[in-house]
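Annex B. Sample input.
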Amino acid sequence: PSVNYLSNYIQKHNINTIYLAPEGEGMAIGSVQVFVRYQGCAVGCVNCDSRQTWDFADKNTYTTETLLHEIESYNIKRVSITGGDPLHPKNEGGVLELVTELKNRGYTINLEASGTRIIPAIFDQVDLLSFDVKTPSTQVRSSFDLLGEVFFKYGNKKGQHLSIRRPVDSSSSLMKFIT
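Annex B, continued. Sample output.
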């Protein structure tokens, strides 16, 4: 059992929305989970399906305590953290605090990462890491060094699954990416 020291929570979370739904892609497809969609993204993929999350202006501000309370109200022990970009430096501290407490409470955590940075303190705690590789159709370039690092560090980690995703809008975009 985890001990809650609510006075120790210091982070604020700028959240676009929280909702219950089945996972629609990747290794956990069909699994019902609570989605926590962070507000704010500076990546700017032209084919983004959640542009409403790009603005960093306060949308719905939660403390870690109120966010945990909202998540727990769904009575589902599976959470997907997405965005926007949950790993943007403005969101990073809150996501770390949230992930740490969710793990302490026995949750299974999926992190949907934009593929632009690795945060070991967060990545080491999640059960499923969905890491995007940006193809030319996004008009954002992925770092192959970063991709290699995430693959070698998290691809064979016991108790964790890594899903490397490549958003494309056409087969020609994929061909440009791999050639």
